[in-house]
Amino acid sequence: MKAVCVCLEVHLPLPVRWYWPREGYGQVHIEKYFDMERALQNFTKLAVNLEVLNDTLSKSIDNGGRYTFDISGVFLEQCKWAPEVIEGFKKLDPESISFAASPYYHSVCSLFPDLEEFREQVEKDMEAIEGLFGQRAETFVNTELLYEPRAMKILEKLGFKCLISEGSHNIMNGYDPMHVYSNTVPTLLRHINLSEDLEIRFSDRAWSGYPLIADKFASWMASMKGDVITLYIKYDAINTHLEKDKEILGFLRDIPVCLEKYNIRMLLPQEAVKIFKGSGLPSLDSKTTARYGMHNLLGNHAQHLFMHELVDIGVHLKKIKDPVKRKEMQRVYRYLQQSEIFLEMNLEERRLGYEKAVNGLSILSDLERAIISEARK
């Protein structure tokens, strides 16, 4: 019998505000560098439909569905604006859902030379998940589905049973990811095309696959060779489809029944790696990858410079003696590690990408001055 694992990413970044440095600098705080008004607007837009989406998933679970949520710490903190959002996830059948862990701040810290920051953020996320949902995360998903071989030993020590990463061409050598892959932590790789059928193309009336009904999608998976198909989909993308076409609700409700018709079962990732024998994939020992390729995160000089400055600031931050001050500045520093900041520096519209880079580096410069000044006290 073939299986499918469905993981839903629940995340909204804190958008960086346009920042103009002034002579001197004041106290470091979130509102100084981030547009909290726009963050609230983005959160409200998603939250208004989360009850509908979660109710639909509950019906899907009643039909045999099993789902994993990758909820970022950034999103969990925004839930202070609507605590009922957390309650909506808690209402889902705990036997049929699981929560994956990731770097708490949706950070690219797994690319830092020293992985201590990465370990701390993963532990922070694990603690938040266990505290809110009563589950210890057994599946790990790195920010932007990053695969970094250096992180594997840390994940193993933290007790993870499964890793989900990007099934990119440089990892798969042109093949579709359809297996559990043997690794320090057993690994599932996202099936890019099938994931994007749901994440991007579902409500596109010009797409040759439109309309995508559950039975059609299940038949596609049934025709593929392999053990397990891993789908990783942004929850806010599902929300976007809902605003255009309510058929997504029927799709989610019906997909478990249609999969069963084709002898495909829905599994949680940690279940899949126990059931299916691991296949060898030598590229996992040496390759690094991310959603849509590493060049999107570190493909130009500005991104590399931003990464270098983050690493440098982390060194100075450790020298601050006052634990309260260090914690305050560390929180801002970690929000500035969000992957979206790197992605915005690589926009197709080169001028805007350049402006985003200048803005981000200006913020880092201001933060670094404040941290160095505090460290000297």
Rounded Rg? 21 Å
* CATH 2nd-level architecture of the largest domain: Alpha-Beta Barrel
Just give the CATH class of the largest domain. Alpha Beta
User: Uncertain segments of ≥5 residues (pLDDT<50)?
Assistant: none
Count of helical segments?
Answer: 17
Explain this structure to me?
The protein contains 17 helices and eight strands. With 377 residues, it is of the alpha/beta class. Strand 4 (139-141), helix 6 and strand 5 (162-166) form a beta-alpha-beta unit. The radius of gyration is 21 Å and the shape is globular. Strands 1, 2, 3, 7 and 8 form a five-stranded parallel beta sheet that branches. The protein has a three-stranded parallel beta sheet with strand order 4-5-6. It folds into two domains: 2-285, 7-stranded beta/alpha barrel (Alpha-Beta Barrel), CATH 3.20.110; 295-375.
Key attributes of the depicted protein:
377 residues; alpha/beta; 7-stranded beta/alpha barrel; 2 domains; 5-stranded parallel sheet; 3-stranded parallel sheet; 17 helices; 8 strands; globular
